[in-house]
Amino acid sequence: MTPSPFNLVDEQWIIVRLVDGQSDTVSLRDLFHRGGQIRRIAGELPTQDFAILRLALALLYRALDDDEDLDVVWKTGELPLREIDDYLDSWHHRFNLFDPTAPFMQVAGLTSVSGETRSLTTLVADCPGPGSLFTMRRDVPSLSFAEAARWLVHCHAYDFDGIKSGMVGDPRTRSGKGFPIGIGWTGWTGGVYLEGADLFQTLLHNWVPDATKPTRDRAIWELEPLTPEPRPTSQIGPFGPAGLFTWPIRHIRLFTENDAVTRVLIGVGDPIEKAQQLGVEPMTSWRYSKTQQQKAKSQTPLYMPSTHDPNRAIWQGLSAMLPPLEPKRNAEGIVEAYPATIITRLSKRVADGNVPNQPVSIVSVGVEYGANMSTYSEVFSDRLVVRPVIAQGGGPANSCALEAAERADQAVSVLARLAAELATANGGESQVVAATARATAYAALDQRFRSWISQVGDDSDLEELSQEWADTARKAITRLADELLASATPRSNAVRIAAGHPVSAGSATNRFLYNLHQHLPAARKETSK
Predict the structure, then answer these.
(1) What's the pLDDT band for 429 if we cut at 50, 70, 90?
(2) Cβ atoms < 10 Å from Cβ of 94
(3) Domain ranges of the chain
(4) Distances (CA, A) of 176 to 110, 180, 338
(5) Whole-angstrom Cα distance, residue 43 to residue 34?
(6) Element (H, E) at 192
(7) What confidence tens digit (pLDDT) does each residue in 142-183 have?
């Protein structure tokens, strides 16, 4: 039976959290019309929210021309809805989830060589099944059209690697199998976005078109319907963010029964050149890859997305996220890293008066994959509230924030060394003890740093704030050191030779105090004449 029409422009399928704290489900059109009422997209997983946000941004990139009048738009508190509606109306027919010839982000009539379809556990990331995350969900016999649409978008963005079903008509199919071409593009990135007070502000913060808009950039719904064959990248790019945000890494077909999705097919889609997206992808930072440059035999430097470390809080990677005064270069003069475009554009927009200097959250989203990237291991997200001025490379607030994060790292290392030396003096293993001390120290500093950095702005007394952080961090680390020393055994007071150097609790303590005050000095006390 032909399923009931379900057009994502009109039907309610995106779960959101409203500014009043209530939950709601909205259509794609409503997402823009109600931007001031919506706090954020809030679906099943942070990765799903990020994927849908990027879908909405792809629409903005295609519906609007540039950001010359961004300040006017911001003051009105409303997006250019006429242009957005006109665009949605023009491409309305391409957003039908079950169109017979061009189903949204799917391949019409897709059939596996075996003739079999798959359980929905291969589509839904938070349910039991191969590659899925641990969850309380036991089974997924069916999905509503709305939920299926959300996981469809998520699959293209983050699907894990591995052998897929071989599809009829795909020349890459061998022995009935589709062989790996990589994970979803967004899974490669250390995804980051800026979150404002509501979705209206969030969309504007993350919409960063170039002055020279890529003329060849097209979203997937503007191109010819997908077929089982891979598309030639020379024709479809991606040439800009709209194409990249809607990239079909998989060939998918949803199967329905009684107005519910009950089965799915997921095959390999279009591969993507990971080291060719600098300048196209604005929502991740980048690192120079000599390996990729040599592999591609490229004369120009190639860059790969910098991924997040799930074991580190977002502020611990601040130096890679915020632009420095001057980019760091290697011995060959090649820039080693670039921050995300949305971060570098933030301070410029504030300086130009395009957006007000209001606090904004930097939100990180990532996936850690399992062995051979063929399973999901962990989904993680973090956020840090900052003032936009810290994104101004080399500015006083920027330097203050980066220096504070660096001092925190150094102080944590000092404590970890103390823990290691105490363990060595006691005749025990030092590495595990040091790692535990490091994790404990970062946990102790975490909320303190988040609270402190939210005060760093262009109207702040930065010297006073810097000293305030040094005092706060020093007290927290010293308290942890006291606990380590209190638990030290009497035998650690004796001098032990380790790696050719004498070690004892006394020498370790003296070294700790000296190094801690080097990195987190106390304020100089004024003396009278």
Answers:
(1) confident
(2) 20
(3) 14-391, 396-519
(4) 14, 13, 42
(5) 17
(6) strand 191-195
(7) 999 999 999 999 999 999 999 999 999 999 999 999 999 999
- DSSP secondary structure of 264-294: EEEEE-----GGG-TTT--SS-EEE-HHHHH
Query: What pairs with residue 361 in β-bridges?
Result: 195, 385
Other residues' Cβ atoms within 10 Å of the Cβ of residue 114:
11
Is the sign of the CA dihedral 306, 309, 314, 319 positive or negative?
negative
Please state, in angstroms and rounded to a whole number, the distance separating the CA atoms of residues 481 and 442: 13
pLDDT confidence of residue 525? 59
β 337-338/286-288 pair status: antiparallel
What span, in angstroms and rounded, lies between the C-alpha atoms of 258 and 413?
Answer: 60
List of residues 6+ apart from 507 with CB closer than 8 A: 421, 495
With the C-alpha atoms ordered 210, 215, 217, 220, is the resulting torsion angle positive or negative? positive
Tell me the three state secondary structure of residue 224. coil
pLDDT tens-place string over residues 430-450: 889 999 999 999 999 999 999
Whether 68 shows a pLDDT value over 60: the answer reads no
Q: Taking the CB of residue 384, how many other CB atoms lie within 10 A of it?
A: 18
For residue 230, how many C-alpha atoms fall within 13 Å in the half-sphere facing its CB? 18
Is the CB of residue 132 less than 8 Å from the CB of residue 124? yes
CA distance 404 to 520: 9
Place of tokens 């490669």: 188
* Run of H or E including 406: helix 396-425
CA 308 to CA 193: how far, in whole Å?
Answer: 13
Instruction: Report phi then psi at 72, rounded to 5.
Output: -65, -45
Q: What is the CATH number of domain 396-519?
A: 1.10.132.100
Residue 169 near residue 229, CB atoms below 8 Å:
yes
Residue 404 tokens read as: 């504070």
pLDDT tens-place string over residues 8-44: 999 999 999 999 999 999 999 999 999 999 999 999 9
Q: How many residues does the chain have?
A: 529
Dihedral sign from CA coordinates of 58, 62, 63, 66: positive
Residue type, 136: M
Neighbours of 518 (CB within 10 A): 12
Answer yes or no: are the C-beta atoms of 345 and 194 closer than 8 Å. Answer: no
Residue with tokens 């903005």: 60
Radius of gyration of the chain (CA): 26
Q: Which residues contact 212 (CB under 8 A, 6 or more apart)?
A: none
C-alpha to C-alpha distance for 226 and 245, rounded to whole angstroms: 16
Q: Which helix (H) or strand (E) holds 508?
A: helix 505-519
State the DSSP string of 435-484: HHHHHHHHHHHHHHHHHHHTT-STTS-HHHHHHHHHHHHHHHHHHHHHHH
Number of C-alpha atoms within 13 angstroms, CB side, residue 258? 4
Phi, psi of 17 (to 5 degrees): -110, 125
Per-residue DSSP letters for 358-369? --EEEEEEEEEE
